[in-house]
């Protein structure tokens, strides 16, 4: 159901404090889908007021990560817009102006308490078993006392004047009404002694001035929301609609963290997850696309989006499921594009080939690989023409041990030798250097017909001399990729190593 009335505007506001987080992409996806589905605008704002945590280069990494994923914003620091600046560090004058305006309206007050007094207050509250919080000491200062302290140059902060009585109600789109008792909410600092705004002031001022109609953010911000609602009331502004998304969880249901799960979007890109896989997976986090469909594109997600279908159960960020989704998206992706993405991963492994050869390998390996990195790492068979047969080791299970033993035995078996000899004969008689996949398959199947033996007897020795592995890529695919001359060379090299006469 599309939203009506005024134009919808949503935003994300990450802090540039390190690698861009998967949680940022998750919240960005739902903000973008909600805005775009309803003909609105999705914007990016950088919340960089905490200079102590600022990380050089992090802002650009946020831009790059969102653009990589296709989560393109209509306005932001790097694309401009009518509501800029979109960096909070460039809006300090606004925050000072509005903080002082709020004091004049009676919604905030100057606080001159020293650090020593606040430390002592916290210690007393702790000793008495009370929750820490400001005691309102400066709320009762007279106008004359305030003016005298300001004239004397005493340091101050500006605090929100929370009501002592009554309740603040969050009308959350997903959760219904969430009620907070006002007397349990601290008088939040809005403007710090150094003139820097806190998150709460900057957030509300920016959302109002930028025309944000819906605040879609993680549920961890619920405790801050009553302060924001009171700020809107104190300014006399209309508050946006609040929608608090469920947090991404580790498998043990704790909040996703780098101690238990990779959280950097850069890590996922470098591991070879493609953008379609990441977006598709994040779209499944706490959301049902419908009709048991789990594979979809970003545009399909936007077209079918309904914010009211978000589940609050706490979605588990499961890397196994991500791999499954990414594999599906790799198989759906245009082969040319996927190959271009895969080439750096091949090169990282030291596997060098022309683009057409890469493309053949990608077409084969993407059927089972879960990432581009895995695709490249498991392509050794197509690149290395010299290899040793595996040997039985103590850590092998029974099935693995049996496969290796069969591989070795197949080269001593008379049927195995006949299979290799006939295969060489057919390769030498082949007129072209290359095979199509179908031609390679037909050639191999012709061995079964002529030798009147089963696939195990015929193909195991060929696998030994062609790949050196008991299992792996289909033999016809290996032949299709490496061609006639490399196949012949591989066979003779292995036969010489093993001292086998045909």
Automatic annotation (TrEMBL):
Primary enzyme class: ligase
EC number of the protein: 6.1.1.17
Function: Catalyzes the attachment of glutamate to tRNA(Glu) in a two-step reaction: glutamate is first activated by ATP to form Glu-AMP and then transferred to the acceptor end of tRNA(Glu).
Location(s) in or outside the cell: Cytoplasm
Lineage, top ranks: Bacteria, Fusobacteriati, Fusobacteriota, Fusobacteriia, Fusobacteriales
Domain Aminoacyl-tRNA synthetase class I anticodon-binding stretches: 337-493
Sequence similarity: Belongs to the class-I aminoacyl-tRNA synthetase family. Glutamate--tRNA ligase type 1 subfamily.
Catalytic reactions on record: tRNA(Glu) + L-glutamate + ATP = L-glutamyl-tRNA(Glu) + AMP + diphosphate
Binding site for ATP: 258
GO terms of molecular function: ATP binding; glutamate-tRNA ligase activity; tRNA binding; zinc ion binding
Transport in keyword set: no
UniProt motif ('KMSKS' region) ranges: 255-259
Gene name linked to the record: gltX
Cited InterPro entries: aa-tRNA-synth_I_cd-bd (IPR045462), aa-tRNA-synth_I_codon-bd_sub2 (IPR020751), aa-tRNA-synth_I_CS (IPR001412), aa_tRNA-synth_I_cd-bd_sf (IPR008925), Glu-tRNA-ligase_bac/mito (IPR004527), Glu-tRNA-synth_I_codon-bd_sub1 (IPR020752), Glu/Gln-tRNA-synth (IPR000924), Glu/Gln-tRNA-synth_Ib_cat-dom (IPR020058)
Organism of origin: Fusobacterium gonidiaformans 3-1-5R
Single GO biological process annotation from the record: glutamyl-tRNA aminoacylation
Name the record gives this protein: Glutamate--tRNA ligase
A Pfam short name: Anticodon_2
